[in-house]
Amino acid sequence: MHSCNPIELPIDPVEGIPLDMPLVYFHGHVTPSVNVDLYKALVKELAQILERQFAGNVESRAAGMVINTMGWIEGVGYELLLHAIDTFNATVVLVLGQEKLWSMLRDVLKNKANVDVVKLQKSGGVVSRNAKVRQKARAYRIREYFYGLANDLSRILTLQISVICTSTESVVDHRPTFCPASWGRTGCRPYKIDSC
């Protein structure tokens, strides 16, 4: 999922980030490796929208942005990290507790004008979360989204259905109104999905 939200006040530790004007693009999968091209297209679309926002708003442009990327830093994850740095025209890249990643980024970005790669140390006692802990945290955030922090939002309806093996050739609506205008018609292409 890709999202952005203006933050103009200190963040409340209980309520979290205020969601007055969020912009969210859902990739449709837990991992970007399922559809890397779509993931990159969504990153590009988000960057273009923010660029337009900055062009029309002096305060936003002066404030800048903080881009929090995923923790996947090997293989395709590293490729997507470089894509985000390039697409958002990042000027400062902070690397937290990853000596190898810092070294790799410093070498790759050394010829890119106006990009500083800064290494930060983790605080003492900080441990990396394993896959199970990350999955649990993600499930908690999804539940919090639907039910609220204090379980005070309305319940959602859950239906259980049987799935029959299918093969779908096109799951994308090809009408120009389906995709953001910046994608053009080529951005909306069909993807084959097999389920079983």
From TrEMBL:
* Sequence ranges assigned to domain Clp1 P-loop in this UniProt record: 3-148
**What do the Gene Ontology cellular component annotations say?**
nucleus
What InterPro entries does the record point to? Answer: Clp1/Grc3, CLP1_P, P-loop_NTPase
UniProt GO BP:
tRNA splicing, via endonucleolytic cleavage and ligation
Keywords on record: ATP-binding, Nucleotide-binding
Q: Can you tell which superkingdom this protein's organism belongs to?
A: Eukaryota
Citing just one GO molecular function, the answer is: ATP binding
The name under which this protein is listed is Protein CLP1
Task: Tell me what organism the protein belongs to.
Answer: Sesamum calycinum
